[in-house]
Design goal:
Length: about 160
């Protein structure tokens, strides 16, 4: 964790190991998936970071993520299995992920007072308790759900706290 920004230190290391280990081998386990909004955010982040020099060509990371996005669009799906990503696309996504806030917490945790769902961030008691053990894809599923619900205080009453994270 970068002490200055509150974001993860980098795309490599623990986050990448966790991302790779979250894949299941077809024995009945859950396959990790990426939502379309995460792919779009990663593509846009890379486009800002590595703009096209000529207005036509794209950075290798943008191309890798765009291939995954095209597959998602072709399948007419809102999400894609992580196993469908090339190693370059996975690395590019993890680089974007490393820039995202570590958790949705806004330091108003009502699960400590016995609520099953935190009023501050929208996570369940189990999600709050086990957050450090979740891999990047599991965390993004939670982020997607709480963002879509939009009922947690981080999205309304205390939106300024959510904007800082």
């Amino acid at each position: 964790m970068d002490a200055g920004s509150g974001h993860r230190a980098g795309p490599r290391g623990r986050a990448q190991d966790a991302a790779r280990s979250s894949r299941r081998d077809g024995t009945g386990g859950v396959t990790a998936r990426l939502h379309v909004t995460d792919l779009e955010a990663a593509i846009n982040w890379w486009r800002d970071r590595s703009p096209s020099p000529d207005g036509i060509s794209a950075a290798p990371e943008v191309r890798a993520l765009a291939e995954a996005y095209a597959l998602l669009a072709w399948q007419r799906s809102a999400d894609i299995e992580v196993d469908a990503l090339t190693p370059r696309a996975l690395d590019a996504w993890l680089a974007w992920y490393a820039t995202t806030p570590d958790s949705p917490c806004i330091a108003i945790c009502s699960t400590a007072q016995g609520d099953p769902i935190c009023k501050g961030c929208g996570r369940s008691f189990d999600e709050v308790q086990h957050w450090p053990a979740l891999d990047p894809f599991e965390k993004r599923v939670v982020w997607q759900r709480i963002t879509q619900e939009g009922t947690a205080w981080r999205f309304n009453r205390y939106a300024e706290r959510g904007a800082r994270s």
